[in-house]
Amino acid sequence: MKKSILLGLFVALFGITSCSDDTSSAETATVNVKLTDGPAMYDAVRIDVQRVEINANGDWIPINFPNPGVFNLLDFKNGMDTALGQVVLPTGSVTQMRMVLGPNNSIVIDGVTYPLQTPSAQQSGLKFNWNQTLAANGAYNVWIDFDAGRSIVKTGNGSYILKPVIRAFSELTDGQIKGYVLPTASQSIVHVIAATDTIATALPNPDGFFMFRGLPQGTYKVSYDADNTTGYIDESVNDVNVVFGQVSDLGIKTLHQ
Hints:
The protein is mainly beta and about 260 residues long. Helix content is about 15%, strand content about 55%. The protein has helices spanning about 1-25, 120-125, 150, and strands at about 30-40, 45-55, 60, 70, 80-90, 90-100, 105-110, 110-115, 125-135, 140-145, 150-155, 160, 165-170, 175-180, 190-195, 195-200, 210-215, 220-225, 235-240, 245-255. The chain is globular and about 65 Å long.
């Protein structure tokens, strides 16, 4: 009889311990969020980022964002980025992200600062897609690509409105092209073209370096367009192959007059 009682107690305790272990072992993944930018023909584009959230399994979860405030998007072109924060999410489906802006948004043109009107962004946040299935114990990097060049609209009365063009990509959906265009006196702009559509544009750094990130897989034409006033001749490279997770290095392109 005593043996039966002891055996029953052992089974009960084992069951309680097992349930406790199951409850504490919820599967999660870590997501690191970074900010990058496409180029723009302005002196500065300053965006007041206050909060970033990720929609995981239908719930909006904020990232741990230790330094909210104003970022000059033009500091993050040609492959540069800055870390915003990190979040631990339950495994499963991620569908969207949301960026909430504060009131201190502005643009600088020829040394003059203009406010950027952003009413909807301040109230409900800027939503954009990021579709990912998070695996248990996974670690993911995701970049928020804020296209400054296509996000600014000038009104008829001379003011400026922020109508954001944003996308997100991860290491799993990151096709890259990089290279140099010389001489810098050509003042070239570099375009990535799919069929007849320009899908990305880069303003090279002072040393001629340019980089595209977050390109879809495919085959593209890369066009080097010199400023018309410099006398240099435009050139292009066809059949540039882009594969996720790889960098297509075009080396140095030297334009001639």
